[in-house]
Structures are given as structure tokens and as C-alpha cells.
Automatic annotation (TrEMBL):
Residues 1-127 form the Zinc finger DNA-directed DNA polymerase family B alpha domain. This is Zinc finger DNA-directed DNA polymerase family B alpha domain-containing protein. One of its GO terms (cellular component) is alpha DNA polymerase:primase complex. GO terms for biological process: lagging strand elongation; leading strand elongation; mitotic DNA replication initiation. Transmembrane segments: none annotated. InterPro entries: Pol_alpha_znc_sf, Znf_DNA-dir_DNA_pol_B_alpha. It holds the Pfam family zf-DNA_Pol. It comes from Punica granatum (Pomegranate). GO terms for molecular function: chromatin binding; DNA replication origin binding; DNA-directed DNA polymerase activity; single-stranded DNA binding.
Length: 130
């Protein structure tokens, strides 16, 4: 799980940008600093005369946060047991007891990485106008 998470983090930090035009799909890591019209600096596709698309992040902060949240959701053994029907719950608890230490270790690793991510924190002072 740690290797998978590191792979997603690595993908995010590669900072790949891709053109949003379906016919172009130009992918790059460098920004185009040319200003054309009302476009923001760095968003114009490098293939500009032939393409009118904009560069967007291929793997954004939100994508990374969603992936980490998904791992936490999948590795949550308590939620898994709560969803099971009461008739087979003891059997599922016995089966889960064997793998629970490993799953909880993986879940705590992902949770620790997710807690370091600033995307999930809300600054209350920025929401309230005084």
C-alpha cells in the first residue's frame, strides 16, 4: 500500500500538464509563458497557432487527496464489519481477525500520509468575513 501511495504522490509531483483539446493532447512539464488574449500565464498550449486549447494538470491535488481517501475507505475494517448482515457477522469477524493487524497497519500508514496533506484542512478564518 505504501508503494502504491508513493507512486500516486510521485505522479502528482511530476507536474504533468496536458492540453484539454481532444485533437491535440500535448503533454509537457514546462509552462508556456506566452500571453494570448485573456489567458493566464502558463495556460496556453505550446502548439498555439494550430491548437486553441489550455494546459491543465493531468493529476491534481484533488485527485491525490481522493486517492488517499479511497485507500482509507477501503482499508477501514470497522466499516466493513458494520456493513455485514448480522447473521454472518461472527464468521466475518473471525476471518478478519487474522488479517486485521496487517490491514490496520496499512490503514494507519495511509492515514498518516493523508493527515500531512494540507488539501484536507480548512482555514476557518478564510471562510468567515469579519
Amino acid at each position: 500500500v505504501k508503494r502504491q501511495v508513493d507512486g500516486f504522490i510521485s505522479t502528482y509531483y511530476k507536474g504533468l500538464l496536458t492540453c484539454d483539446d481532444e485533437t491535440c493532447k500535448h503533454t509537457t512539464r514546462s509552462l508556456n509563458l506566452r500571453l494570448i488574449g485573456d489567458a493566464e500565464r502558463g495556460t496556453v498550449c505550446p502548439e498555439y497557432p494550430r491548437c486553441n486549447g489550455r494546459l491543465v494538470r493531468k493529476y491534481s491535488e484533488a485527485d491525490l487527496y481522493r486517492q488517499l481517501t479511497y485507500f482509507c475507505h477501503v482499508l477501514d475494517t470497522v466499516r466493513c464489519i458494520d456493513k455485514v448482515d448480522n447473521t454472518i457477522r461472527p464468521q466475518v469477524e473471525r476471518e478478519l481477525a487474522r488479517v486485521r493487524p496487517m490491514v490496520e497497519t496499512a490503514a494507519s500508514t495511509v492515514q498518516r500520509i493523508q493527515n500531512r496533506c494540507a488539501f484536507g484542512w480548512v482555514q476557518m478564518m478564510e471562510l468567515i468575513i469579519i
